Structure formats: C-alpha cells, structure tokens
C-alpha cells in the first residue's frame, strides 16, 4: 500500500535566530509579505532557508525536539524556531511564555523519508499570529502554500483512511485565535533536560538543538532563573509509568483539556502546569470523574474518565483508541490510532488501582 500524508496535531514549531552562544542577526525573508500579513506563497520565503534555497536550512535557525511529541499518524518530524535578533521570551509565567513579535516556528512532516507538509506559525504583530500549511511537491524540491480552507482527503494513509491538509480554522482549534495564539510543544517541560527515558515516541536530542538549559544560558528567557538548569521541570510523580503517561496525555490532550477550555468535556485538567505541579493529584482528579460522553455498554450516567483496573470502562481509554469521528480523542490531527500509546494506557489503567489514594 502506498502511504501518504498524515495530519499531525497542529503543533507548529520553529527555528531560532541565534548562534551557538549568542543571538545573531535576523533571518531575512526572501520576499516581502502582503500588507494584510498573508503568509508567503512559498515555504522558501518564510525565512527557514538560506536565501530561500530549499533544503539549505539557515544556520542561525535552531532546531528543537519536545520530549513528549504529538502523535501524528507515525510521521517523522523536524522543528525549528526563529527569534528576532536581540529579542527574548517573556517567561514571567513559567507555564505561559510570551513570544516576541517576529517569532517564527516551523514543523516539517515526512513519511517514508518523503517530505509531505511543513506548518508555519509567525507572530507578525503584537496582536496577530499568522498560520499556514505548505505542501511539498512529489520530488521534494518546493513547497507551496495550501488554500486557507485546507485540502480535504489529500492522501490515503491506510485503507479507507485519508489525511487532509489542515485549514486555518483547524490551526485555530488548537492554537487559539490569531490575536492570542498559543505556541505548542515549546515550553519548559517539553524542553527540559530532565527528559523522560520512556517517553512514548520520544526523539533523541541532537547536537545544536535548543533545550531549557541553552535558552537559559543564552539569556533568551526573561527573567532568568537558575533552577531551570539545576532543577529542570518534570512530571511530578514518583511512579515512572505515571510520569510517562501523563507526559503523553498532557502533550496530546492538555491543550483542550486544561480546566478552562470551552470544548473540554470534563473538569479535570491535563495542562502541563498541573502535571508538573502535582501529577498524582491529576491522576486522582481523573479517577471516578463522571463524563457526559457515554461509554458503550456502561449504564447511563455511570461513565467515568478513569476506572482503575478497567480500561474498557474508562472513557479516556475508549475514546483514545477510537477513530470514529463522533468519539475519537484527540478529535483533530490524526486518522490512525496510536497503537503504542493505547497499549501503554491500558497497562497503566490496569495497575492504577491502589496508586490513587
């Protein structure tokens, strides 16, 4: 079967304009954008490449790798971030960094070594974030801007399963509206040097990648906090299996299920600020928590998020293993079930009894 593009949860991430030890000059766009801040027509003109030469990543642009990657139907990804020269990230709230105007982020999706799509997020003004998806041609020599509405059913990724290039509204569903978009996957927990060795789909740190330590040492986070280096954040629990599972759930579910989102269907929060504050408390908040979504076969009104020792009676498991549009979680970003994560979740629920008291 010919495999094709898969939609990854819209975690648009990018390339940082700095040398190995200090900020460098700004990345110069190969062409100006329209006055209405429309994204460039070609990926080559977004600032990712040297002089717009496809494939030649600007050496001042910096790669990074979140320790808990978003599930993207088995796609491999590369990510970069770019800050304007001399600019810093406002990290006054350690859990809600504020990025300077001019920040650009990219995430490239590949399937079987073929580049398929690159997503772009750009803080164009103090009140406007611009998002876009770029689709690669067959031979990987160029990537053009996808239509604002996306490309439905772009390619088959499994029998009867097709990936769609996301539209701008799909980006906003996870990142939020253009005036206050969130950057996903680039935060203190995801960049922590205290990386989870059992992280599901964990990616190795490669030379030159940004981490919380390098951001702190290069004074790119303001205010500076030495504990980012001496005691980097991690999911707070003494159980390594719970650490791994909460890390995965926070990255894949916490953007919506954060205790505040209007579309979150339950009160429990998987936001990363909560899992790094007290992961065990997050688990307790899931156990026995009633959900409006009815688990098939469970008596009306008796469905709960997590039933220790009983994965099939836990809505969080039943919905994560589903890829039916009416029930799957996450609702966007994938058409194939994450078999490794579903199996890990079942094992974790099986042994959760006794750890929640």
Query: How many domains in all?
Result: 2
Helix content: 10-25%
Beta-strand level of the residues, as a percent range?
A: 15-25%
What's the mean pLDDT score? 86
Topology as a string of helices (H) and strands (E): EEEEEEEEEHHEHHHHH
Structural features, described:
The protein is an alpha+beta fold. The protein folds into two domains: 43-230, no CATH class; 240-352, no CATH class. It is 19% helix and 16% strand. The protein has helices at 168-175, 212-217, 227-230, 240-253, 272-286, 315-321, 339-352; strands at 62-63, 76-82, 89-90, 104-111, 114-125, 128-136, 143-145, 151-158, 161-165, 221-222. It has a six-stranded antiparallel beta sheet with strand order 1-2-4-5-6-7, covered by helices on one side. A two-stranded parallel ribbon has the order 3-10. A two-stranded antiparallel ribbon has the order 8-9. A hairpin with a 2-residue loop joins β4 and β5 (114-125). It is globular and about 60 Å long. 44% of the residues are buried.
């Amino acid at each position: 079967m010919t495999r094709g593009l898969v939609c990854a949860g819209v975690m648009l991430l990018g390339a940082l304009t700095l040398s190995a030890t200090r900020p460098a000059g700004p990345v110069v766009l190969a062409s100006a954008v329209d006055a209405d801040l429309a994204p460039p027509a070609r990926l080559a003109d977004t600032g990712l490449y040297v002089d717009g030469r496809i494939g030649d990543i600007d050496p001042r642009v910096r790669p990074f790798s979140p320790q808990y990657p978003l599930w993207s139907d088995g796609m491999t990804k590369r990510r970069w971030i770019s800050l304007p020269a001399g600019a810093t990230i406002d990290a006054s709230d350690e859990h809600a960094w504020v990025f300077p105007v001019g920040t650009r982020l990219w995430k490239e999706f590949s399937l079987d070594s073929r580049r398929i799509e690159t997503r772009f997020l750009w803080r164009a003004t103090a009140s406007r974030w611009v998002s876009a998806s770029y689709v690669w041609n067959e031979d990987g020599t160029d990537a053009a801007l996808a239509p604002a509405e996306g490309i439905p059913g772009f390619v088959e990724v499994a029998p009867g399963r097709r990936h769609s290039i996301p539209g701008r509204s799909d980006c906003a569903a996870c990142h939020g509206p253009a005036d206050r978009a969130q950057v996903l996957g680039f935060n203190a927990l995801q960049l922590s040097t205290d990386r989870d060795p059992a992280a599901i789909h964990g990616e190795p740190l490669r030379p030159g990648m940004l981490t919380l330590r390098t951001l702190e040492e290069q004074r790119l986070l303001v205010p500076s906090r030495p504990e980012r280096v001496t005691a980097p954040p991690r999911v707070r629990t003494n159980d390594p299996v719970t650490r791994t599972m909460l890390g995965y759930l926070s990255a894949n579910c916490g953007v919506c299920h954060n205790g505040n989102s209007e579309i979150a269907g339950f009160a429990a929060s998987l936001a990363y600020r909560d899992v790094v504050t007290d992961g065990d408390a997050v688990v307790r908040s899931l156990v026995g928590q009633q959900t409006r979504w009815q688990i098939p076969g469970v008596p009306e009104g008796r469905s709960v998020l997590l039933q220790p020792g009983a994965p099939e009676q836990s809505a969080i498991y039943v919905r994560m293993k589903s890829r039916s549009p009416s029930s799957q979680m996450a609702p966007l970003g994938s058409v194939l079930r994450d078999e490794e994560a579903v199996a890990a979740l079942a094992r974790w629920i099986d042994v959760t009894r006794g750890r929640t008291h």
